[in-house]
Specification:
six-stranded mixed beta sheet, seven-stranded antiparallel beta sheet, alpha+beta, 46 strands, about 950 residues
Length: about 950
């Protein structure tokens, strides 16, 4: 007799639909096994043959943190290409490398945490390099392209499973885990949600990651919008992965709950499915879940809902069907890593990301031009926190050497050459080392690169009679780096000693930056990573503890002895050249990065000095900005200005090819470049409408507008036609290359409501297309736009509304460079007054406000409005219909003392309502009433005094 083969369980049957298979597998798991799947690091279930799994693999512009990989331009650079086809191909290459790398290292995950679709609302946001644009439609178009590439084209199985970051309204690093973004309903729907929505609806998104911040007083990890919006946009199961440490923040920093059991339960019920907390140690999160179950704060059904979403993603990734998975790694696809095609794509992306901001004819450089390339970024290929490790690299200097020949290219980095003299008369000395250059930070790969430690195997600095000349660069705001002659940066490891040990500044806490602080007749040298001052000890140079009572000894007072100023070297090479290229910008790990916002749009003073020196020595000075952010520069005095984000492994070659005219630049700005810090709103002001922010509402004159970018060719626009039929607006026009070189043009279509009843954008991008045209070539461009593209969120009725009337269609090369225009008249739904007699008013549905912020009505849902601390709040609700008349008003309020004043139109207060005493807590609402006589339609004005929270206003009679 032969033993019968056990039947294949349904979850292993590839012929069944995924939902049935998930149901079957879920039914076989014990509660403990399901609970174990709620942490980022999910253990194996060996009895069912289920492998371990982890959520999260950074892949913003290449596979990150896991060692060498192809490095593409930063996300903001990909946004600057305005090219969905290119970005889709980049996503496809990244996902192929993720699969190939996983075949060699199973720590590489397939649930990729990218792209970032937070809008670049404010140019000082430290993480602007991670986003695509300030515009929601452009952001969504680029994000959709990238996720389609990451997902792959198979109808059933996914190559990788992308998760969008960071839900929601997240544009500041300052107090990012405790501050609240006040987001009114129109901004929420028309701006912040839009980028997420259109990308999710495109069908290539596996989930989202909530952001650290709060929105309207409620942590994003408890956001009711996950249920009300996100999961209503698609029938797919979406996996919500927490940001790292955010679940603990609900108690530890935000103090939103008293216990971690309550916080974990609330997050799970709100829709968080996977908890990224305490690294690989799942014990704390699982103990909290079990505690919540025991206390009745959670049910097994709550756990099932989260586990179901994770399993759905794992089935889509082919984990349970290796023989049917079209993306399973084979001998052939194992080589889909650092391929010639990927290298060529990295170059193409870097070329397409270059934006020519200004050009009076000095570019492209003529053959045989003698070029001086200068500046602290001229011979650098910088990475950011979410980069992989470079396999190949090219700098602007290397690219120009290759393109023009080393004999025609001269170089000056522009660093200050200094020695640091001690009070004893000796100098800091970098001792020789037999050590050959080690692997770059991150070469070995790490699930959490924040844990990578500095090197302690090299000798610490000492002092001697002559010292070592160091290269000093001030990166702005007094933050500087010091580099030894062998190219290594001074760094501080865990033992506190200062060594020349780092190939580049980097790490979660950068250990390679210092500050010179005036002290008497010299300077103290403060290490920014530890906060301690540098001192000289018998066993070497080290950093003293910040605590002066630690017994570490007094900090050293240094005299800065300057051997050469950077301007001097720049002036020498600039004077001998035909053209000078100043390569300036930022180091992505310094002054503007995750955890740190910028404070100004200005270039660092050190770089402004270098730029002035170059211009003084040679007026033919080109500024090439290589940066993650916009800068405010005096562009009018320069013959040419370019910008590119940090362009990855091919950055230098791409920039050189654009400068030489081998490629005509066609990148376009994905965000407004403001002329001055005074043009910027407060970093924490999220009201893009009331604050007149971004190109949509900004009424000033920008340095360079959204969508701007020049070419070595010229283009003519003609033959604009617009037609309204069958529920859409059809727009067509032609673009002709009137220049003498083949070049790309980005044709842009904007719209503007000509007679709006509420503030609408000055112009709003509706569509765009990047075209390649030979000299004399003409292309017809056509777009079909649904009427819904012209709608706005009507707060009076809580829904989208298409307003009837004329709309301008604006076609051109940027948001300000309009070449053609036409007007169409759209039918729609006329404005109707607010039916306040029947429905009352939700406080948050105001038309205008001053001095208020939106807060959480309860810990689970709803909004209220309260005055900003120390100010009086004013709310305006237009066109309130009191019908045949009302005789009374009620308000639902909570919190401390204060009053609610009710007035009509511009008149005096008709009712003043104050609670008898503060309510027990901010969520304990009371309803108080007063007499109010009103009929017909009026504007309603509400004054908020004190610290009351106003949730609702009702009318009776």
């Amino acid at each position: 007799m032969t033993a019968s083969t056990p039947p294949t369980p349904p979850f292993r049957d590839p012929h069944l639909p995924f939902p049935k298979r998930v149901d079957d597998l879920l039914s076989r798991l014990t509660l403990d096994e399901k609970t174990g799947m709620l942490h980022q690091f999910t253990p194996a279930v060996e009895r069912l043959g289920i492998a371990a799994f982890r959520t999260g693999q950074e892949a913003l512009h290449g596979v990150a943190w896991m060692g060498p990989a192809t490095v593409f331009p930063q996300a903001v650079g990909l946004g600057a290409t305005w090219n969905e086809d290119l970005v889709r191909r980049v996503g496809e290459a990244v996902s192929k490398e993720a699969r190939a790398m996983r075949a060699r290292d199973d720590r590489v995950g397939l649930n990729v945490w990218s792209p970032t679709v937070n809008l670049l609302r404010h140019p000082l946001w430290g993480r602007g390099e991670e986003g695509y644009s300030e515009d929601p439609r452009l952001t969504s178009a680029i994000a959709t392209a990238y996720t389609r590439g990451l997902r792959g084209g198979h109808p059933t199985y996914w190559r990788t499973a992308p998760v969008l970051k960071h839900w929601l309204a997240h544009n500041n690093e300052t107090d990012r885990d405790t501050c609240s973004s006040s987001v009114r309903p129109r901004v929420l729907n028309e701006y912040d949600l839009r980028a997420f929505r259109e990308t999710v609806e495109a069908g290539a998104v596996a989930g989202v990651m909530p952001a650290y911040n709060l929105v309207n007083g409620r942590p994003n990890h408890l956001s009711p919008y996950l249920r009300e919006h996100l999961r209503a946009w698609t029938e797919d199961d979406l996996l919500v992965c927490s940001d790292a440490g955010a679940p603990s923040n609900l108690v530890d920093s935000e103090h939103y709950f008293e216990t971690h059991e309550e916080a974990t339960a609330a997050a799970l019920r709100a829709g968080v499915d996977s908890f990224t907390d305490h690294g690989t140690d799942s014990s704390k999160i699982l103990a909290r879940v079990r505690g919540a179950l025991e206390r009745g704060l959670l049910t097994e059904a709550d756990v099932d809902a989260a586990v179901r979403r994770q399993l759905s993603v794992r089935f889509r990734l082919g984990e349970f069907d290796p023989e049917h998975d079209p993306y399973a790694v084979t001998a052939e696809t194992a080589a889909d890593f650092d391929t010639p095609e990927h290298r060529a794509l990295a170059l193409e992306a870097a070329e397409q990301a270059v934006v020519l901001l200004r050009n009076d004819g000095v570019l492209p450089l003529a053959p045989g031009t003698r070029v001086a390339v200068v500046g602290p970024l001229a011979d650098e290929c910088k990475l950011d926190w979410y980069s992989g490790t470079l396999i190949h690299r090219s700098t602007a200097l290397e690219g120009l050497y290759e393109r023009f020949g080393a004999e025609r290219v001269s170089f000056a980095e522009g660093v200050d050459r200094v020695r640091l003299k001690t009070a004893a008369g000796t100098f800091l000395h970098v001792p020789p080392s037999d050590d050959s250059p080690g692997d770059a930070r991150g070469t070995e790969g790490a699930l959490d690169p924040a844990l990578l430690a500095g090197r302690t195997d090299l000798p610490p600095l000492t002092t001697d009679a002559t010292g070592t000349e160091l290269a000093l660069v001030d990166w702005g705001e007094g933050v500087l780096t010091l580099r030894a002659p062998d190219g290594r940066y001074l760094s501080v490891a865990e033992d506190g000693f200062v060594r020349a040990s780092a190939d580049q500044p980097g790490g979660w806490v950068v250990q390679e930056t210092f500050r010179l602080e005036p002290h008497g007749s010299g300077h103290l040298l403060r290490h920014t990573g530890t906060g301690g001052h540098v001192r000289v000890a018998a066993d070497g140079v080290k950093v003293a503890a910040p605590d002066p009572t630690s017994g570490d000894g007094a900090p050293e007072v240094f005299e800065l002895v300057v051997a050469e100023r950077g301007e001097e070297a720049v002036s020498r090479v600039a004077a001998r050249a035909d053209v000078v290229v100043v390569v300036a910008g930022n180091d992505p790990h310094i002054n503007g990065r995750e955890t740190e916002d910028r404070t100004t749009l200005r270039l660092p003073a050190h770089q402004e000095r270098l730029l002035r020196a170059a211009r003084t020595a040679n007026p033919a000075t080109v500024l090439a900005l290589v940066s993650a952010y916009p800068y405010a520069v005096d562009a009018a005095v320069l013959p040419a200005v370019l910008w590119t984000a940090h362009g990855g492994q091919a950055a230098g070659t791409a920039l050189a090819r654009v400068l030489a005219g081998d490629v005509s630049p066609a990148g376009r700005l994905p965000q407004t470049w403001y002329a001055d810090d005074a043009d910027l709103p407060d970093l924490l002001d999220y009201d893009v409408i009331g604050g007149r922010q971004t190109y949509l509402y900004f009424e000033g004159t920008p340095l360079f507008p959204f969508g701007h970018g020049l070419s070595y060719a010229s283009f003519a626009y003609a033959d604009l036609a617009a037609r309204v039929a069958d529920g859409e607006v059809s727009v067509s026009f032609t673009v002709t290359n009137t220049g003498d070189v083949t070049a790309d043009e980005v044709a842009q279509l904007y719209a503007r409501a000509e007679d709006p009843s509420v503030p609408r954008p000055r112009r709003e991008l509706l569509a765009h297309r990047r075209l390649t045209l030979a000299p004399g070539g003409t292309a017809e461009v056509s777009f079909a736009l649904p009427l819904s593209a012209f709608a706005f969120w009507d707060v009076a009725h809580g829904r989208w509304r298409l307003e009837p009337g004329p709309y301008a269609l604006l076609v051109g090369a940027s948001s300000e460079d309009v070449r053609l225009s036409a007007t169409v008249t759209l039918d729609g739904e006329p404005a109707a007054p607010r039916p306040v007699r029947e429905r009352g008013l939700e406080a948050v549905d105001f038309d205008e406000q001053s001095g208020t912020e939106i807060v959480d009505r309860t810990k689970t849902a709803g909004d209220a409005v309260t005055p900003v601390t120390g100010r009086e709040g004013e709310l305006l609700y237009r066109d309130c219909d009191f019908g045949s008349g009302v005789t009374g008003v009620t308000v639902a309020v909570a919190g401390g003392g204060g009053a609610v004043e009710i007035a009509l139109d511009g008149g005096p207060a008709l009712a003043v309502l104050s609670p008898d005493a503060p309510t027990p807590g901010p969520y304990d609402y009371v309803e108080i009433g007063a007499a109010l006589a009103a009929d017909g339609v009026h504007d309603l004005r509400i004054g908020l005094r004190g610290s009351l929270r106003l949730a609702h206003v009702g009318f009776s009679g």
